[in-house]
Every structure is written in structure tokens, then in C-alpha cells.
Amino acid sequence: MSALRADLQYIADWIKPASRVLDLGCGDGDLLASLREEKAVTGYGVEIDVDKVVTCVGKGINVIQSDLESGLATFESGSFDYVVLSLTIQAMHNIEGILAEMLRVGRTGIVTFPNFGYWENRWQLLLGRMPVSETIPYEWYNTPNIHFCTLADFDQLLGKLGMQIEDQQVLHQGEKVEFLPNLLGSLAMVRFGRI
Amino acid sequence: MTQPQSVGVVTAQKAVFDQPISLACGTTLPRYELVYETYGQLNADKSNAILICHALSGNHHVAGKYAETDKATGWWDNMIGPGKPIDTNRFFVIGLNNLGGCHGSTGPSSIDPETGKPYGSRFPLVLVRDWVETQARLADSLGIDRFAAIIGGSLGGMQALRWTISHPQRVRHALVIASAPKLTAQNIAFNDVARQAILTDPEFHGGDYYEHGTVPRRGLRLARMLGHITYLSDDGMGEKFGRLLRSGEYKYGFDVEFEIESYLRYQGDKFSTLFDANTYLLMTKALDYFDPSRDYEGDLSKALAQTAAKFLVVSFTTDWRFSPSRSREIVKALLDARKDVSYAEIESQHGHDAFLMEDPAYHGVMRAYLNRIAEEIAR
Fold first, then answer.
1. Residue A62 and residue B340: Cβ atoms within 8 Å?
2. A79 chain-B contacts, CB cut-off 8 A
């Protein structure tokens, strides 16, 4: 199996062996396939795009074709150890709804998103233009992304929703950023649970 | 990839069962026959068998032709064959006509050995679970202990689902397509109108029309017309027929004017000469009675708790007779029971009939899933 994308590998590192994982917006199912092989994880993916569903099915991944915006009603409360939402939240309408649903069906949530506070984004805004970068590769007029936030914004929202951060990680080009993460990291990863 | 091909010319076979079968309705049939067809080769360890369960009006002729010159193919020929999603180069595929059918298996139009006359009204009602038992006996006779997959659409999907509950160890994978865990009141209502059309046809004679030399063709025709409306989507029908008039103008009468009328009448006429009314009644009752959760306090996930199968559930966006929400009920029950399940909701214009149509996304999902089964059994 080819190496997992760096951000997915960091998510995998957070997940304990033999746990139950729900991957929202699972794409081609790479994370779940890796977790199944490396950590004997029982996983399900949720994906809206039928071509990606076909890819997951071909990999033997359990995948449910569904629109995340309509919630997670198919999934029983407390039925997962981890619920992952990777690089999807910025394109969703009901952010508070999905975060609440994640911690209804799972014990721990893991969200990754492009950090709008990354210095290059700030710099481009300062120059008067909407940022276009590696983690935000779209122009303003064709972007699927509707809810940008910085790492600090996201942390604040979790607090408002009665959730707390268990761990967070900031990456740039697949490498961990330890110094000034909200400024120097282009991709944010947050692991959180109920207070 | 090699170009998909037809399974070619096929021949139906007949299996005779002398061991009596007690049916869910309380009646025992002392003896019965099932016609079936097979495509592909059963492998040495008999692990590559796939059973295809048919829907209301289906039969054992699932793929191929009876003669090279035949125009018509089996009803799921686009799905089954060398290089097709259900690839007969890899799988041994069985199609059968269910007990109570009218295409060669013992049914209401067969001769009752006790009386020497067609069963007619004396033929018992058969439930989905009874079909599963007869299918299991057919599998026994072919030496198949465990199916690689059991696949069905609509009423056929109900049989696949029932298999995983009745014989959990005999099914590796169940593919439940455009189906439902049980019918809704509205769905039963449609079935009853169809039945009433047949039952009130003066030619029906309480089901013993064979000895009267009549056929309740009018009733069967109406039943089929009604059914057909519910198998298409409003959009699909609108796109195909719209308000098109056959002659381009209003005739102010009750003859065929709109294209949709012509289409439905044609479908009804054709069906009424090919199908047996008693079988139609029996099939619709099997649909109505189906509810595997009934033995489990109405809890489908409990019913599925013992199953060892993995599932693929597929629905179609414009299917309102067996809508996606009904398939999602099955998915939810499987998730609650912590079973392996994948679910695809295919965009389609074709309503319930979509499960019989060729569609890249639908066939892509089927191909990918069956590919995985083939790899699994080769391991």
C-alpha cells in the first residue's frame, strides 16, 4: 500500500488499535484502508460522491453514500470511538450541527481544516486579495469553501459548544509546526471530546 | 479489460424435490419442482456460487438467450455475463423461478398430482421465507454449502435479506437492491388494488379459471398497468411521454390518445398473455407479508444480529415504490447490529425500474463490490 498522505497519517497516529472509526467525507477511503491494515480498526466511511463510493467499495471499505449536511441520523449514539472529519468542515453549512452530531455518535472527534490564520493567507489579505494557497487552492468565485476559520477561532467554537480540545497539531507541507502554530501552520488538526 | 459479452445460448434445467416442504401458511406441499438456469463454472471448492433472486414478475431466465436468433435476452442480461459486473468468468450464477411461479416451477397453474387438475385456488400462499427454504434445497442439490453472494432487486432483495437471517452461515454477501425491510401501508394498498382487479374479473372463477377455459386477462392487465405506473418516476414518465398525443390532436373520446396510455395498454396487454394471474396474486401477497422483524419485536437490527453476511444496499433517487429511505432503514438496522455494510444511492431518472437498467454509477458499484468478493474467495 502506498504511504498515507501526511495529514491522514497524523490522524491515524491519534487512533488507538481495534477501535471503531467513522470517517466523514472519507473520499477514496485511504485512511480507513490504512487503519484496517495497520490497526485492525472497524471503520465506516460516509461519502457523497458516487465515484469515490465506488473506489471505497473496491477497497473493501464499508462506505455509506450520504450527504453530511443531512446529519448522521443513520448512526446510533455512542457507536464509535472516533469520528473523523478531514478537510471538509470548511465547505459545510451547519458547522455547529455536525460537531454536535460527531460527539453524539462518537466519543472523540477529529477535525482537520485549512488554517486561515496561516501567515501567507494573512499576507495575501493584507495585499488586498483573497488568499490562494496550497491548502486553499481555489479562487474566491469557484471555491466550495464557505466557512473559513483560524485555529484560534475553531478552539473558541469548541468551547462555546461545551467541547474541549484533547490535542491539536498544526502542519505545513506535511511537517509538524511547533512554533507559532496559528501563524506558521497551513493545516490544523484538532482532537476533541466532551468536557 | 475485455469487452463484456453475453453468456450466449442457455438451457433451463429442472430440479425435482420429493421431500415435502411445510410452508409458513401451515400447508405442506408433498412434492415440487423448480426450474433454474446456471451460467459460468462452479469452482472446485464450490465457493464461487451466486444466487439471483427474482422480483414480482421475474423468472429463472436471467441472462443469455434460448437460441442464437432470439431477440429477447434474460431479464438481467446487462448485469450478468463474461466481463459484466456479475462476471461469469469468475462466478457460477444461478437463476431460478420461485415456487408459485408460472415459468416452469410448481405453481398455481401446475397440475396437482392429487386431482390431476391445475392447483388453481388450492395452491397455498408462499412467503419469502418459504422461497428461501426451497432455494436452500436447490443449493443442497447442487452441492453448494455457502453462497459467495445472494443478489436481488425489489422482492428479490427481500429474499437476499431473508437468507442472511434464515441461513446466516450460508451467505458471504447479500446485495439488496431497490428493496425494503417491509412494505408500507401505501405499498400494500397498491398491491391490493392490483389484486382486486384480478379477483373481481368475471373470468377469474375464484382462481380456478384453468378448468373454465378462461383467463382473467382484463384484471391482470389492469394490475400490471397500475404496477407499471409505480415502477416509473414522474420525471422519467414526463420526459419519455409528456403529454404527447398519438395523432397530434384531441379526439374527444376514450380510445388511446396520449402516448402514455398507449404505452401502458401495450405493457398491460403483453403481460396479460405471458403471466399467470394466480402467480401475480401470490407474489404480491409474499411482498405484503414480508417483515423479518416480526419475530423480533419489530426490531430489524435484532433480526439481523445473527447474520454473518456482509451487505451492499443500493437504492435509486427517483424510486418511490421502494424509496431510498426504505433502503436506509435496512442500512441503519445493519449499522445498529454492527454489521459490515456499504450503501449507494444512485442518481437515476428511472424510478423503481432503475435496478434493471444499465447505469455507469450503479454498474460501477456492483462491479467494484463483486470484484472484491471474487478476490475474497480466491484468497
1. yes
2. 335-336, 338
